[in-house]
Every structure is written in structure tokens, then in C-alpha cells.
Write a structure and sequence with these properties.
Layout: H1 4-16, E1 22-26, E2 32-40, E3 43-47, E4 53-57, E5 61-65, H2 69-87, H3 104-133
Amino acid sequence: MRRRLPAMALVTLLATACSNTATIHRNRGPAYEAKITRSEPGALYVLGDDGREYRVPADEVRDIDHPGNVLAVLGGVSLGFAGLALALPSRDENRFEDGAGGNARATVAFTYAALGLGLLVPGLAIWLRSRGAAANLQPATGDLPPDAWPAAARPLAR
């Protein structure tokens, strides 16, 4: 168990290092990495690096990859491991006893559950905030003709 804690701490550190900016794929030009502040039917408003709010017209927005989904998935997987640690039968219950008389299986399950909740809750909060800020955006109908696409910006496969 003591050998697993550094690995779990490293996974937690790497997972929480994810950004809270959305990737806004555009019809023309490269994608934006920015925090979505609000939206209206015809535009999306993002926070720039300089702290100012910028307007992105709805006809430029092709797709939005909201932040937080990776954290939520990692948290769910960790909660699944916690459930497995408790649910899987063992052939020898004595091998799960540590030297202090405690149950090592419960310690592993508790650790994975704490890690899972620590990732799932913030991940969902970040994802829901971003989705809520972009909820009013109504994407433009129809696709651009192929000759309108610049060479550097190709449409995503649907």
C-alpha cells in the first residue's frame, strides 16, 4: 500500500493540472483556448489573455470542447476501483490485514474513493460552468462550402 501512495499522488497531481479553458474550434482559422464567460444566440464571449472579454460570432463556432470532462472521467474510474477493491472476493482474507491490525482492503478502497471524489466533483463543476456559459449559443445553420475553408483550417470529421 505504501508503494502505491506516491503513484496515486502523482496521478492526482497530473489530473488536477488540467486547464479550465475551453477549446473553441472555429470554421475559419485556428482554435481558441479561452474561458467562456457568457453567450447569446448570435455570439460566444470569451476571456482573453489580457483579461478583456471578446466576442466570437456564432457562425465562426464549429465545436466546443468544454474543460473538466477528463477530471470527471478520472474521478469516476477511481470510484470504480474503490468499488472493485471492496467487491472482489479474495481467496485468503488474512493477506489483507496489515501489521497494525487494520484492513488494508478498506484502506485501498477509501483512498481510491477519496481520490475519485476529489477529481469528480471539481471536474463536474468546471464542466457544468462552461456548458452553462455557452448554453445560449445557437450555432449557425448549414456548413461552409469547401472552397471557403482556409488551408490551415480543415473541418472536423463528424
